[in-house]
């Protein structure tokens, strides 16, 4: 029996794939669980339309990510923090603060989960930080941490 998958099924295929399976497997497992539909002309057109809509949505998201990347790529963010005698910062710089600084400087909101920082920054210096805006679009910002006066 030919069926079109409407959900990913490990070992058989992904959404939109048309596969041949035994009648019993299709009628007793795939179709009742909402994993597949019979591969009729109408069902195939319906699933293809959904795939087209998903593709257009992904293209819009990628274009938006590229637009944001153009604005923030190469941006230098300066942060002043009080430091101790050893050169360590009082308090660490987190992804939330970096996202806030990007918003202040470039006027663009970036989700803090998209900022790739392995651990909070606790020392002075310059750091190149990757911002993963989309699976195919990355931007790099430079974080310049300078000492400020302790009050």
UniProtKB/TrEMBL annotation:
Transmembrane segments: none
Coiled coil: 44-78
GO molecular function, one term: structural constituent of ribosome
Residue ranges of domain Ribosomal protein L9 in the record: 13-40
Alphabetical list of InterPro entries matching this protein: Ribosomal_bL9, Ribosomal_bL9/RNase_H1_N, Ribosomal_bL9_bac/chp, Ribosomal_bL9_C, Ribosomal_bL9_C_sf, Ribosomal_bL9_N, Ribosomal_bL9_N_sf
Keywords, comma-separated and alphabetical: Coiled coil, Ribonucleoprotein, Ribosomal protein, RNA-binding, rRNA-binding
The organism's place on the tree of life at top rank: Bacteria
GO cellular component: ribonucleoprotein complex; ribosome
One Pfam family in the UniProt entry: Ribosomal_L9_N
PROSITE patterns: RIBOSOMAL_L9
GO BP annotation list: translation
Described function: Binds to the 23S rRNA.
HAMAP family: Ribosomal_bL9
Family, as annotated: Belongs to the bacterial ribosomal protein bL9 family.
Protein name, as recorded: Large ribosomal subunit protein bL9
Organism, scientific name: Aquifex aeolicus
Taxonomic lineage of the native organism: Bacteria, Pseudomonadati, Aquificota, Aquificia, Aquificales
